[in-house]
Predict the 3D structure of the following.
Amino acid sequence: MEIRTATDEDWPSIYPFYSAIMAEGRTYAFPERQTLDEAKPWWMEQPPGRTVVAVLDGRIVGSAKMGPNKPGRGSHIGTASFLVDPAHHGHGIGRALGTHVIDWHRTEGYHAIQFNAVVETNTPAVHLWQSLGFEIIGTVPEVFDHPDHGYVGQHVMFRRL
């Protein structure tokens, strides 16, 4: 698997699984039913951030976006978001993207990475991030309207670099 910087030409290949994941409504509080053009700025980061794609056998199977969590005096802390094509779950793509994001933040001189909103019922993601050294430092209760579980919490997860 290759992980490389995403280009504008990659967006049409990312969009189908981006829109499928948003339509499921289980992991992100992003707008649903966005068109290709409406969704693009929600995922394709501009500098100082970066978006990457995971490519397997010539096909884009995942993506991550990363950059500063906050501007100004909060810019020493990074953040990231991840998408894996549902047809390719369980093949280590999320782990490879997570490792890439950690390495990129370290190389760019960030002090730590903070995930602001990991849905507590997204147990595969919570387990993955904990296995990569992230800690749950708090959970905001009932802030995510899950289609199966109703109002659930979102974890704030943190990892020093």
Notes: The first strand starts at residue 2 and ends at 5.
